[in-house]
Amino acid sequence: MERQRSRRASLSAEQRRKLSLLRTSSIPSRLKPVSHIYHLVPCPRKCCNQKYVVSTDRSGDIHVHVQGDLTQQDKRCVFLTVHDLGTNHSSMVDFVNSPAMSEIKERSCFIHIDVPGHEENSPDLPDSYQFPSLQTLGEDLVTVLDFLHIRYAVGIGEGAGANILARCGLAHPRRLLGLVLVNCTASTSSVADAFRSRFSRWRGADISQSEEDFLIYHKFGHQISSDSCEPNEKDRMLAEYRSRLRGNLNPHNIKLFVRAFINRKDLLLKGCRPDILLITGTLSPYSSVIEKLYKELDRDRVTILKVEKVGDVLAEAPAKVAQSLLLFCQGQGQLTSLPPPGVERRMSRAMSMEEYDKPNIRRLSLTPSVADSPPHTKL
User: Fold this and answer.
1) Residue 303 DSSP code
2) What is the pLDDT of residues 290-303, one digit of tens each?
3) Which of 138-147, 179-188, 197-206 has the highest mean pLDDT?
4) In what order do the strands lie in the sheet with 176-182?
5) Which of 78, 231, 249, 351 sees the fewest Cβ atoms within 10 Å?
6) Which candidate, 9, 85, 73, places its Cα nearest to that of 251?
7) What angle is formed at CA 338 by the lines to CA 337 and CA 340, rounded to 5 degrees?
8) Torsion-angle region of residue 303: left (phi > 0), alpha (psi -120 to 50) or beta?
């Protein structure tokens, strides 16, 4: 992260402005929503400001939860999030609502995606519905950005959701400033065989104990058998996850998402234009896979955060993830009103927060200005 911090800090405000213009030069100045693609519905958990159902050409209806004030998006950082298997947007909402994310949350808007059929208390998807591939889902996410008039966003995805967002970044590189990929597996061979052995005979309407156990392993990894987590905390996490699987999520639709994940094609991230932050934990079942992916990519475009003694990094290490997320976003010219971790905030009383949000090389620099430097001592 130190390397990324110094490299990004060397950009002047004018260079950041030109970079932003370059990334958005192909975006129409006024994005028009298609009149038939959405309707507004109340958010059942009351955790988000608005909820939309957006119809896409190939993926069908996608439920979209907006957390934050999108009318202020020109002054805020906009995030697009996609969840993992066995959960829905609520896992991302829980991360955003953690105390470590409070300052970022105040200055941002979050667009949380529910994969088709994963909204709470969803009915079975009809037999006539062809569940989309991860590639199709990734390509169709641009419909959501178009409808909400989002010129560009920073993507945050976990597991299967990270794979979807990475494909979105490859298909629409000018719409995503950067990609934050948590436990993103690029190769199909890394996990496909293990999934097939657990889910090949999944025929019923419910999730069996074996299937549930593997979804728990996919989510928490070796953390469930490690002594790094307090027993009471471990029991609480597992009970909460099992409650979601057995409660308000539809097991039939979960099965369709799992099959799409199993049948996905290799994700080729070489040459990906948006910058990438890879995140994993040492107790994740995909830790070694993430390290291998990191070594294969352009080091000028990718950074990795590996958290010790953690499997579910978003739930167990939100502070470390938030720090890395902040530095990553500041490298894209976002959230510049917040000081980087370990750097004291210095803001003039005469300067408004709106003025302070404008990129300024002196605020981002990790070295003191000439005026702040101590006088030279004559020897």
Assistant:
1) E
2) 999 999 998 889 99
3) 138-147
4) 38-41, 50-56, 60-67, 108-114, 77-82, 153-158, 176-182, 275-281, 302-307
5) 231
6) 85
7) 130
8) beta
Name the one residue in this structure whose structure tokens are 């991230």: 269
- Closest Cα to residue 59, out of 140, 119, 123, 166? 140
**Distance between CA atoms of residues 139 and 133, nearest Å:** 10
> Quick check: helix, strand or coil at residue 8?
helix
Find residue 158's DSSP bridge partners: 182
Task: Determine what percent of the chain falls in helix, strand and coil, rounding each to the nearest 5.
Answer: 40, 15, 40
Q: What's this model's pTM, rounded to 2 decimal places?
A: 0.78
| Residue corresponding to tokens 């439920």 | 63
Neighbours of 153 (CB within 10 A): 26
Q: What is the DSSP string of 219-286?
A: HHGGGGG-SSS-HHHHHHHHHHHHHHHHTTS-HHHHHHHHHHHHTPPP---TT-SSEEEEEEETTSTT
Mapped onto helix, strand or coil, the DSSP state of residue 63 is strand
Name the one residue in this structure whose structure tokens are 């829905």: 88
The rounded distance, in Å, linking the Cα atoms of 72 and 78 is 10
Each residue's pLDDT tens digit, 340-365:
776 665 544 444 555 545 444 333 33
Alpha helices, DSSP H, located in the chain: 2-9, 13-24, 89-96, 102-106, 134-147, 160-171, 192-199, 209-220, 231-246, 251-262, 287-296, 313-316, 318-331, 353-356, 361-364
Q: How far apart are CA 373 and CA 370, in angstroms?
A: 5
* 8 Å CB contact between 249 and 118: yes
